[in-house]
Design goal:
Elements: H1 17-25, H2 31-35, H3 43-58, E1 61-66, H4 72-83, E2 87-91, H5 94-112, E3 118-120, H6 130-139, H7 145-160, H8 179-182, H9 202-212, E4 215-219, H10 220-232, E5 244-247, H11 253-261, E6 263-266, H12 267-284, H13 295-315, E7 323-325, H14 336-353, H15 361-385, E8 391-392, E9 398-405, E10 410-416, H16 420-428, E11 434-439, H17 450-456, E12 462-467, H18 473-476, E13 477-480, H19 493-510, E14 515-518, H20 522-538, E15 545-547, H21 553-563, E16 567-570, E17 587-590, H22 601-612, H23 617-634, E18 645-649, H24 665-671, E19 676-678, H25 681-689
Parallel strand pairs: 1-11, 1-12, 2-4, 2-5, 3-4, 5-11, 13-18, 13-19, 14-16, 14-17, 15-16, 17-18
Antiparallel strand pairs: 6-10, 7-9, 8-9, 9-10
């Protein structure tokens, strides 16, 4: 593959008046300096801003790895605001959306003396649906007394808040069972033409505000949706036509795009739709069920069939937590009849409610959704009959069909093995728009962008840039790979975690807790938590040990910050998006190299496909994925110029083969910042206790 030449600084190129204007804003005595406490001119930040300014002028595609501390949000927001163009900023998730809108954007606007109209647009499930809220209040069909209490709070919130974003409502947890009753999905939304609350619809008004805004902050899935809608219907727009699109947290884009371009149907979604139809028919058309049956029987029939299928899954060995490709599931062909029977039951229900469609908008919408589900179940029934059949997307890319189980439900997934063509097509449809894709983790060893560019289909059109972190990593951080750690593939998983905590404890205790332990699996996370809590008790320490999942992410992080000497144990979702500066976080422990788990159905299928094309899946795909994930995890440690910390990696495979590691260890090491390195505990102690003389 040909990789575009990296542009190291582009200061040699001639600059337009606009580019020079942007550069001056970052001067030591410039407006950003005067408005920002402790401002330090960073050449990487200036170069980044310069690149964004040129992209606005040329409509180019820029891929930027900006190391931690570069100040990337100021670097891309400044030229965008000065240019006065329409800007879309897309992020991987809601935390950065909220940070950009409430903190970063106002700070840049204040510094520059510029005010731009801005809005945050999230997926529809984040907003209260007044129609569904009104129905729920009228019918009172809720699953628990707690949901009834929450409903009262939501009613007051919906009457007093002008945005209706559920994240702004305190006192109702994100997992409260009331939320599906008062929010909408694409399937059950009536749409602005039919909904009696369309003038007061939070989703509609949020989209209306977004189309009128200068700066719109969205997430990747929503942005891809908007491009796809416009691609299929040029007159349909969810977002304004932008001159600049910033794709922040771009390392997540391939994964999110893979889900977006794929498809899935869950037994839960089917059951939920049946419950919605039952609720509506019993409340409004109770006496109008077809002869010799009733609404209960009609709506329960598909649900009971899918419940039987759940029990059958257990019988054939597909249990909670399993995710397998169709050919790898024994006797999967026998499951086709369950899906065919469920589809037939839905069709009978559809025929029963069809006469009611003209009388009730919600029934009309539910009927349409149920018919689509019937078609999807019929299609999956055929897929189960022929599990080895090769499916392809409209672009001709192979897909993998797989089933994932939870305790009571199943999800049927169809995932493309590459989204490069589809993503490149959407990019090429935006000929008047500049794209700037950025993250702290896009390249692997020696600034190699080939994996990211291959995954996104941008290899032939993107300019790539790397601007290193301004932090003095050799002085600020030490990488410690304990000499007593074995190859994790050669020992029991629990024994490996026990030995890792034993080797790490002297360091954790030396810094007084203040540690993140980042694990590659839930089982490792639970084991590490148990072992750490026993060490804390046995040694009489007052460190709290918090584990992901025992409370909300926000609550756990707030407790960690408040305590000042806590230990937090998390799995992969805690490897990124957390910014804790100062002494509160002094040690990060990573158990193993974050390779995708063995048995991952998409990884297995993609690896086979890469091999069939003459590639080497382990080196071409699995190692780059793991290297980028490792960079994300290690990035939690040093967050400012004054931070000091110790990174412990328990997996000796991160080392070069000559140092007792692996033949790919150097790829991982060269992807990481230039920490000082050691395998000796006494050197770690010296580094921490003698910061001015440890060298």
């Amino acid at each position: 593959m040909t990789v575009p030449t990296q542009v190291p600084s582009d200061v040699q190129e001639s600059s337009s008046d606009f580019v020079q204007q942007v550069e001056k804003l970052f001067a030591e005595n410039g407006p950003l300096s005067r408005a920002t406490s402790g401002y330090v001119r960073r050449e990487g930040q200036v170069a980044f801003a310069r690149t964004v300014a040129r992209a606005i002028e040329s409509g180019s595609t820029e891929v930027v790895e900006a190391g931690t501390g570069t100040g990337k949000t100021f670097a891309y927001l400044t030229p965008a605001l000065v240019a006065g163009v329409k800007v879309i900023v897309s992020t991987a998730g809601k935390p950065l959306q909220d940070q950009l809108f409430h903190k970063d954007l106002p700070a840049v606007e204040s510094a520059l003396g510029i005010h731009a109209s801005a809005s945050v647009l999230k997926g529809r499930a984040n907003y209260i649906c007044k129609y569904r809220l009104a129905n729920t209040l009228a019918e009172g069909m809720l699953p628990s007394p707690q949901a009834v209490k929450s409903l009262k709070k939501i009613k007051i919130f919906s009457e007093t808040d002008i945005i209706g974003d559920r994240a702004n409502l305190a006192g109702v947890p994100a997992d409260d069972p009331v939320w599906p009753y008062v929010t909408s999905t694409r399937d059950n939304c009536l749409g602005p033409q039919k909904c009696p609350f369309k003038e007061d619809c939070f989703v509609y008004n949020a989209r209306k505000a977004a189309k009128a805004s200068d700066v719109v902050i969205v997430n990747h899935h929503l942005y891809l949706s908007s491009l796809s809608i416009k691609d299929n219907d040029p007159d349909a727009e969810m977002l304004p036509q932008a001159q600049l699109v910033i794709i922040d947290e771009a390392h997540k884009l391939p994964e999110i795009a893979s889900n977006f371009f794929g498809s899935e149907i869950s037994t839960f979604a089917v059951k939920d739709t049946m419950r919605e139809i039952k609720r509506r028919t019993l409340s409004k058309f109770k006496t109008r069920a077809p002869k010799e049956t009733n609404w209960d029987k009609l709506t329960d029939a598909p649900v009971h069939i899918l419940m039987d299928m759940g029990m059958w899954f257990h019988e054939i060995g597909l249990h909670e937590g399993d995710a397998k490709k169709l050919p790898d599931i024994a006797h999967v062909e026998d499951g086709a009849s369950f899906l065919a029977d469920a589809a037939d039951a839905i069709e009978r229900l559809y025929k029963a409610i069809e006469p009611l469609v003209s009388e009730d908008e919600e029934i009309a919408n539910l009927a349409e959704v149920s018919l689509a589900m019937k078609e999807e179940l019929s299609r999956w029934s055929l897929s189960l009959k022929q599990p080895n059949a090769v499916g392809k997307t409209d672009s001709g890319v192979p897909v993998v069909r797989w089933i994932a189980r939870t305790a009571t439900e199943a999800r049927f997934h169809e995932t493309p093995l590459s989204i490069a063509q589809d993503l490149a097509r959407l990019r090429n449809s935006q000929t008047e728009t500049a794209w700037v894709m950025t993250s702290a983790t896009l390249a692997t060893g020696n600034n190699d962008f080939s994996h990211f560019l291959s995954e996104t289909g941008l290899a032939d059109q993107a300019n790539t840039h790397v601007w290193k972190s301004p932090f003095d990593y050799p002085e600020q951080a030490m990488l410690y790979v304990p000499s007593g750690m074995p190859d994790p593939k050669k020992v029991d998983r629990d024994d490996f975690i026990d030995r890792l905590i034993r080797e790490s404890w002297p360091v954790i205790d030396m810094v007084g807790g203040r540690t993140f332990v980042l694990c590659t699996s839930y089982r490792a996370m639970q084991r590490a938590t148990d072992v750490l809590r026993s060490y804390v008790t046995e040694n009489g320490r007052d460190y709290s040990v918090y584990m992901q999942g025992e409370d909300s992410r926000r609550t756990i992080l707030d407790k960690y910050r408040r305590d000042g000497n806590a230990i937090l144990v998390g799995s992969m979702s805690f490897w990124e998006g957390i910014d804790i500066k100062g002494e509160n976080l002094s040690v990060v422990v990573i158990d193993k190299l974050p390779f995708a788990p063995v048995g991952d159905p998409v990884l297995e299928a993609k690896s086979k496909w890469i091999e069939e094309q003459g590639g080497k899946p382990f080196f071409d795909h699995q190692i780059p994925l793991a290297a980028i994930a490792l960079k994300q995890g290690t990035g939690r440690l040093i967050r400012s110029e004054t931070d000091r910390g110790i990174l412990i990696i328990g997996d000796p495979r991160v080392l070069p083969k000559g140092a007792g590691g692996s033949n790919y260890g150097e790829i991982f090491l060269s992807s990481l910042p230039s920490y000082s390195r050691t395998r000796r505990l006494e050197r770690v102690i010296d580094f921490w206790e003698h910061p001015d003389s440890w060298q």
